[in-house]
Design a protein that fits this description.
three-stranded mixed sheet; globular; 51% helix; 11 helices; alpha/beta
Length: 275
């Protein structure tokens, strides 16, 4: 996460980090090749963020129209179909607009939607429930299907946060989001919620590919997905193969992935710390 000027890292709250924990270990310290197509054509950083936000919204909702139309054909579980509809509905009606530097706690019972911002961070995307803020890297690409799947993953966390705020005691909720971020590596993980969010993004990809993702995963073939991010594709490949071939152990599989991440701190579905 970004280093805030004038703050000690020990006092910066940890952030709910999405995806790639096992790949992040290998990527630490490596500068990735990024493309700044928006920055080349727009005049200032605030305009870049505003235009990127609009482009991202259009691309994500366009994907949603396609996916929702074909849900009955490719998604067997009615609960999963409902989750996917809610993800796109949440993004469509999201009323919050914020600056890229917005901070602050959103009190219990006052949350409506979420804040979407672009920030300098190593992780592709993250969501902080206490601030109701989704953060994306400045090179986040709305034209890449895996970026949109990542966005679906984060929006799933928004819906989970609504449920947590309604069910979990507020002091426990705040404690979860206040875990000290040691050297910027701390990752707070609720294995069940991570597995649910990854599964949802996989099902969205499967619908968008007209069932090809599921067929590739169950046959052991490489995923037929075009992307500029080979690391993200490797992650989805690994997760899809396990999700579609061994769904009953998918939560344990996801937990093992995060066990390989430096600084991972685990919590139960009720936000109670677990070892």
């Amino acid at each position: 996460m970004p280093n805030h000027v004038g703050e000690n890292l020990d006092h910066i709250p940890s952030r709910k980090v999405s995806f790639l924990p096992f790949i992040l270990v290998a990527l630490l310290g490596i500068q990735r090749d990024v493309h700044h197509a928006y920055a080349e054509t727009l005049s200032g950083p605030s305009m870049v963020s505003e235009n990127k936000r609009d482009a991202l919204r259009r691309a994500f909702l366009s994907l949603g129209e396609q996916v929702v139309k074909d849900l009955e054909t490719y998604v067997r579980d009615p609960q999963m179909r409902n989750k996917i509809r809610k993800i796109f509905d949440e993004f469509r009606i999201n009323p919050r607009i914020c600056s890229d530097s917005e901070e602050g706690e959103v009190p219990l019972g006052t949350q409506k939607g979420f804040c979407l911002r672009f920030a300098p961070q190593f992780h592709p995307a993250s969501f902080n429930g206490k601030r109701r803020t989704m953060s994306l890297t400045k090179d986040f690409d709305p034209a890449d299907i895996l970026s949109l799947a990542t966005l679906a993953h984060e929006t799933s966390h928004v819906l989970q946060d609504d449920e947590l705020r309604a069910r979990v005691p507020w002091d426990r909720y705040r404690a979860y989001w206040s875990v000290p971020n040691i050297d910027g590596t701390t990752v707070t993980v609720v294995p069940h919620n991570e597995a649910e969010s990854i599964a949802t993004s996989l099902e969205i990809l499967n619908v968008a590919s007209h069932g090809a993702l599921r067929k590739d995963a169950t046959s052991g073939r490489p995923l037929a997905i075009r992307t500029r991010d080979p690391y993200l594709k490797a992650f989805f490949q690994q997760c899809a193969q396990h999700y579609y071939t061994s769904p009953s152990t998918f939560v344990s599989f996801v937990e093992e992935i995060y066990r390989g991440a430096p600084g991972a701190v685990f919590f139960s579905e009720d936000l109670v710390p677990i070892k």
